[in-house]
Design goal:
alpha+beta, single chain, Arc Repressor Mutant, subunit A, 21% strand, four-stranded antiparallel sheet, 11 strands
């Protein structure tokens, strides 16, 4: 009962989650477990058995590629509500296709793969929402990869920050607490280039600093967008 109460409390905080689960049978809500993962915890590893579906309800998760030896590259960040493990089910993959790590403290609702399969194949509403989300993810990932291929130095970091603002800020000031090493890993740039780029971004008025935090206001985001639009057609 305690788990069910926790799930219901989480559902009340998210209109998307309520819509996603609105046609789910009672046993699905009762089967959902609330799991918390601290920052830097590996959620799933690429090529490990894809036996669990994770629904991200709080926090931020990063997708990591290790294919270049000795280099960790973040190619995608995810924010609530996001479902991990569904794509593997739909593509009939028995192993996870990427490594996921908690970028912040995270909260998930989890189901076994078999429970999720039993539910979602018989729930047209959840299936429709998942296919729409999956299609958007694949299109966004492909587009971001193409754009970043041609952006260098400060422009690549600006694009990364602008994407974060668009997804997370909702018109408010966004505080980025990532360290320089983390920004380097996410952008694929050296720490030296990151330091030089952030200094230039502050001088040009794209960002503000508060201690170690990088702050982006709505006005600064719009300035970023205008600048990026001059380089990339429909950048954001």
């Amino acid at each position: 009962m305690a788990v069910g109460d926790s799930v219901n409390a989480i559902m009340q905080k998210s209109e998307y989650l309520k819509e996603y689960l609105k046609s789910a049978p009672y046993w699905v809500v009762e089967s959902l477990m609330v799991v918390k993962k601290p920052k830097d915890t590996v959620i799933v590893e690429e090529n490990s058995k894809a036996d669990t579906v994770y629904i991200l309800v709080e926090g931020t998760v990063r997708a990591i590629d290790y294919r270049i030896k000795g280099f960790e590259y973040d190619y995608m960040w995810f924010y609530p509500i996001e479902v991990f493990g569904a794509m593997e089910l739909f593509f009939e993959k028995t192993q996870y296709m990427t490594t996921l790590k908690a970028a912040t403290d995270c909260t998930f609702l989890i189901l076994s793969r078999e429970q999720y399969k039993r539910w979602v194949w018989n729930d047209n509403n959840a299936l429709r929402m998942e296919f729409m989300s999956m299609g958007k993810y694949l299109l966004d990932q492909n587009r971001v990869a193409r754009v970043q291929l041609f952006l260098q130095g400060m422009d690549r970091i600006l694009y990364m920050f602008a994407l974060q603002y668009r997804k997370r800020a909702n018109g408010r000031t966004l505080a980025i607490t990532s360290g320089r090493q983390e920004i380097a890993e996410r952008s694929g740039l050296s720490i030296k280039t990151v330091n030089r780029s952030i200094k230039k971004m502050e001088e040009d008025g794209f960002i503000s600093k508060n201690g170690r935090k990088i702050l982006i206001s709505e006005e600064q985001y719009l300035k970023m967008k205008t600048y990026l639009d001059s380089i990339v057609d429909q950048s954001l």
